[in-house]
Amino acid sequence: MLQLNRLSRLGNQTIEGVLDEEDRQEMIESASAKIRELFDVLKIDHVNDHNTRDTPKRFAKMLVCETLDGRYSLPPKITEFENVGAFDGLIVTGPIELRSTCAHHLMPIHGSVYIGVLPSTNGKIIGLSKYDRIVHYFASRLQIQEELVRQIGDFVYEKTQPEGVAVRISAVHMCKTHRGIRASQASRMITTAYYGKFETDQAAKSDFLQECKALERF
Fold it and tell me: Mean pLDDT over residues 197-206, rounded?
């Protein structure tokens, strides 16, 4: 059974412990009931309308198993490799597809993530696909971009202990383009986070940003 103290974390944090299949089904059923109540308040017929008859259950399942899945799952396992060649050059990967949900209006955030790493010569490097999995893990919850960029950077830096880590996110927020001011789809937000050598070495920082721009053109 789900315990309330496991659900008391912030919306963009992982709950204490993970949900097993029974927990997930219980959460989906409970959420479905609440969404049906919301539909009643909004005068949406979820009983007779063939379009919305099963929407509360579908919506609840999407929230638990996709939109917020990162909150209820373990972080991705990191595949490490020995840095046999003592490589100390800049590694930049991206664009990594970003899909998340705004914590303020529950609207989609979509864009690109770029991660730069200066590996330690006597340390380890991680599998390239793991960066994508890390982004997906922290994006699969309610987010604001300023905190998401730090969560990704903190995780990579703490798990790999390189000489430096840089993270850049460029994203469109539908809470701005589809409501309120209804800004252009070209309106984006960019956030960056720097760790280790990237914080103090302006040349390393500039190299990272230059490579990000190069990757954007492909």
Answer: 97
Question: In the numeric block, which tokens belong to residue 97?
Answer: 């597809």
Grouping H, G, I as helix, E, B as strand and the rest as coil, residue 153 is helix
Q: Starting at the edge strand that comes first in sequence, how are the strands of the sheet with 189-196 ordered? A: 142-143, 91-102, 108-118, 164-173, 189-196
CB–CB of 65/23 below 8 Å?
Answer: no
112: tokens are: 């690109």
Q: pLDDT tens digit string along 168-180?
A: 999 999 998 888 8
**144/163 Cα distance (integer angstroms):** 27
d(CA 33, CA 134): 32
Strand ranges, E, within the chain: 80-82, 91-102, 108-118, 124-126, 142-143, 164-173, 189-196
Phi and psi for 107 in degrees, rounded to 5? -110, 155
